[in-house]
Amino acid sequence: MTRHGPLNEFCWMDLKTRDPSGTAAFFSAVLGWEFAVDETDWRRAVVFWAGDHRIGGVSDLAQPVYPPGLPAHVAYYLAVDDVDHRTAEAAEKGAQILLPPFDAGDQGRIATLIDPVGAAVSLWRPQGFAGWPVSPPDDGGAFPQHMVLACADPERARHFYTGTTGAPLTRATFLEAAPGTTPQWELAVAVGDPDRVAARARELGGELVTVTGGTSRLSSPEGLTLRITTAPEVSPAFLETDSFLETDRLVLRPVTPADAPDLLALDNDPAVMRYINGGWPTSAEDIRDRTLPRLLHDHACTGTRGYWAARHKGTGAFLGWFELRPLDDHDPAVVELGYRLNRAAWGRGYATEGARALIGKGFTDLGVRRVTANTMAVNTGSRRVMEKAGLTFLRAYVDDWPEAIEGSEHGEVEYELTREAWEATETEARGR
User: Fold this and answer.
1) Taking the alpha carbons of 408, 79, 71, 27 in that order, is the dihedral positive or negative?
2) 363 in helix, strand or coil?
3) For residue range 343-377, what is the model confidence (pLDDT) as tens digits?
4) Which of 67, 95, 182, 217 sits at a 20 to 30 Å CA gap from 237?
5) Roughly what angle, to the nearest 10 degrees, separates helices 194-203 and 20-31?
């Protein structure tokens, strides 16, 4: 049975090298990846694992299929729902198509392009294989954590990928690169002992140097690069003593996979989804492949997951979820506030109560400097919650959504709350 992994996420990497054995030896010694011939593949391709998870392959650039002089590099594959459609969208948005869509045997359908900021990427509809772990395992292995694109215009890049795939890339960070830097996607992996990684890399002819964004860059002797982050000493879903956030009526905790049935019911209420997708139903596969990976993503800069399940303190009933998510995975300064509650919870003040609690935690514990929130201009209910939670209107704007829904012609609105404004309000309230 064909099994597809999460859409709109990077899910595979290919080490393209002129020294396959040396490359395997380097990354095996430095990161603990295990390389072997895939005996189940008729091509006997070399693949590698992080723990029990197959995460990439190795290609020999000496093979005649590659042009002479092509430098060693890492190719990354972004899972999409329809390679032909998404490639056409990419071309319309300024991408250069290097390899038009083609069927790669039993591996799925692939296209390769250069995005408008100059970075190479392959669009892939995998077949028979799900790719990287949906949520990086918390067992110390050098697993794929997230992708980083450093380029001259990160906002242009972010907009391109959102428009091309139809949704934000939930495990990708866009950073501004130093002038003259060649734009390229890089995988970030977390390691427990960066000093050991650095020493081992240098012993084998590679290097580890500090770069922007709170990471270091690991380079193999041939110039294949990855980003290295420090694995947290505890689970990023909060310390055990701080796993829950309680208000007068709510218990908020990080979302877990066990919430899937409640999330499915929530997203299948047309009224709940009215301003999200026009009220269309959501499948269990969508929850598994798209919703959960987004809600389970850990943010190292805040030490949290960005989404919180909300339950009634008295009855334990599932009410929905709240979002307090950093816009940059490596910087907690700006976070996005969001909420999605079932209809039984509407009109009772739960949204405002939960939003205020998370805003307070963000400003006091998580290093947040500014909270932003966005919604459709016609979504008066959500706008009232933003205002009651202390946010003020910032701007109205029109975004280029892949599928228009009723009311989207009136545009979007953004609200904000700065730490200084919040502190002033809190001080005033305490003085009354």
Assistant:
1) positive
2) helix
3) 888 988 999 999 999 999 999 888 899 999 999 99
4) 217
5) 150
How many CB atoms are closer than 10 A to CB 260? 16
Task: Please state whether beta strands 108-114 and 120-126 pair in parallel, antiparallel, or not at all (unpaired).
Answer: antiparallel
**In terms of Cα–Cα distance, which of 168, 142, 186, 149 is closest to 9?**
168
Is the model's pLDDT at 211 over the cut of 60?
yes
The CA distance from 394 to 372, in Å, is 9
H helices of 257-349, in order, are 260-267, 274-277, 284-286, 292-295
Is a pLDDT exceeding 60 seen at residue 256?
A: yes
| DSSP track, 110-144 | EEEEE-TTS-EEEEEEESS---S-SS--SSS---E
CA dist list (Å): 86 to 97, 101, 124, 128: 11, 10, 10, 20
Tokens 């002992």 — which residue?
193
**Could you tell me if 418 and 401 are in contact, meaning their C-beta atoms sit under 8 angstroms apart?**
no
CA 88 from centroid of its chain's CA atoms: 23
Q: How many angstroms separate the CA atoms of 274 and 54, rounded?
A: 39
Q: For the chain, percent helix, then strand, then coil, each to nearest 5?
A: 30, 35, 40
Predicted TM-score (pTM) of the model is 0.58
- Domains of the chain as residue ranges with CATH: 9-230 (3.10.180.10), 240-431 (3.40.630.30)
